[in-house]
Amino acid sequence: VALLSEVFKYPVLAIAVATFESPSAVLPTFRSAVTDAPFALAWIGAAYAAQNLLYFVCLGHISAAGYQVLSQSKLIFTAMLMRVLLGKRFTTNQTLALTMLVVGAVATQVAESSSVSLGIGGNALLGCGLTVLSALLSALPNVFYERLLKKKEGQSEWAVNIQLTSWILFWILLNTLVSTGRIAASSYGAGGWSVVAAWSACVASVDGFTPMVWFICFLKTLNCVIIPACLKYGDNILYGYAKPVSIILTCMSTAAITSSLPPPMMFVGIAMVLGSMALYGK
What we know:
The chain is mainly α.
């Protein structure tokens, strides 16, 4: 899904450039992405790819509930990095709002999960450490990318977006080829690994995709337009509100459909997140 969503981003970006700029700007924008400092975003793409890989490693050592709770440390890293990289100063109200957001996000995650146990039989300490590292690897490129979108002059934001998409695709594709190549080598012997065999394994991996899976790929593809717009016209803190708010909306919809009240911890999380939103906006 991650690989396909990155591939599908190119036509979406082309349509976005044609819509918000002009159809004649599509080719120059893609050309600018190739010629104007094309390697500048390589490390950002690597950080995003590493975060995606760490997700599965972390879940091998701690529970999904533990991962969700610890991953909220991303909000703390985001605020610290925005202060360093963007020079953003947080008022007392905003600092209190961020604290409330972290507590509220943790509460909603705990309420959403059936269990809050950290360990699942693996190395819990390693899993916790890697989860916090994953949160840092998510916050750092996000803040740096926001800085590029808001401060970079002389280059289209769409070209920057295309560059980032290309590097994320490169690192994910590289990892996919290596991992599927290992499967091919184990299946066909030492001489079974080749780029062709690895690519064939990649193609075979989409066998059995249902329409819902393809729809999820499409939704993830839209991130190439929605997230940069959020970072450019808002900031990473506002983007950080997205996940707890989405959980709250899902919980409220479920409660309305099933006529059942959410657990008390969810009410605590909802109150903290909504209070944080009101306080941060002051």
